[in-house]
Amino acid sequence: KTKMAERRKTKSKRKVNDDDKPTKEEYAVAKHLRFNLPKKEAKLVGMTVQYFIASKAVDMLMDSKWASGGKGTEVLFTDRRSIVYYLDSLLAKGLFHRAAKVDRKKDKDKKKKKIKESDREEEVDEEKKSKKEKKSKKKEKTEDKDKESEREDKADTEKEDEKKSEEKKEEKKEDDKKKKKEKKYKLAMHDEQTFVDGEEFYVWIYDPVPPKTFIIGLLLVLGAIAVCLFPLWPPEVRLGVYYLSLAAAGFVGVILGLCVVRFILFCLIWVCTFGGHHFWMLPNLTEDVGFFESFVPLYQYEYKGGDSEKDSKKSDKNTEKNKTAESKPEEKDIKDDIVKADDEKDESGSEKSGSDNSNGNGYEIIDKDDFEVDTEVADKESTVTA
């Protein structure tokens, strides 16, 4: 009786375990999501894990063959709700689990700062709007053409500022996107392990081996076995491998020899020309480029001599001196013309001032002889009266 009871218990356990295991269809759906959904990494309890977003998984299954019934498959999904129920069953069977994003102190502080900055910007914008309204009222009272042109100029400057601000915002958005891509979120286990259609995070537990890695690993194993069985190869194949190895070793030796030769040639030219000529043969040979690009161009030449620079400086100085010498006689001629013009102006001004004084103020210009005759006549008249 005890043996029969134990057998019944083991059968019931096997049935429960079989119910918990996913079916072939469920494995196929999970594999489709695992290899086709965009991969994103995060940290969960110090481990790097891969997660997906619920809404994107639902969108992918809505466009899959299980929703359209293509390629002779049964229709499993009719709407988004049916997909949510199906993915909830996969979660219960342990293919993935729900996770929650953990906000760090730095992120919280940044959010608070952003909120404060947004509030300040709103206040500043309101003040600017009030000032603009006051200015617009004043401008409406005194409408002039000049002010209209100024308004147009201001509008153009504001548009340019808006464009610049929009460009800066776009650059900031791009930088934020890059930072988000570079940064890894920190996740934690969610209390409610259910599938919800939305921006929820779900961490993959199901991690099958992709076919590419399987094939590559199989080829590596077969190659290692083939190398170990080299003594059993046919003699012709061993000869071919021997010649191939010699050709590869010769090619590597030629490249190393070219590196040494190009360095020696550069040093010789540099020493003979006292650092004036720089000549590199195959300059990209040791650079991080492709195989064919390392042999292009064939050479690179640069001249870094000091004589040409001195000659150019001397020629520049001579040209400057010639320019100054040419400009000096011209300056002298201009100065002479200015002095002559000033003299003519002074002469004409003095003549005009004399004529003005004689006519305007009632004075006449008297010669010396006339003045003496007048004085003699005056003396005679005085004696006669006496």
TrEMBL record:
Biased composition range(s): Basic and acidic residues: 140-176, 306-354, 377-386
UniProtKB keywords: Endoplasmic reticulum, Membrane, Protein transport, Translocation, Transmembrane, Transmembrane helix, Transport
Location in the cell: Endoplasmic reticulum membrane
Keyword S-adenosyl-L-methionine attached: no
Membrane topology label: Multi-pass membrane protein
Pfam families: Sec62
Protein name (database record): Translocation protein SEC62
Lineage: Eukaryota, Metazoa, Spiralia, Lophotrochozoa, Annelida
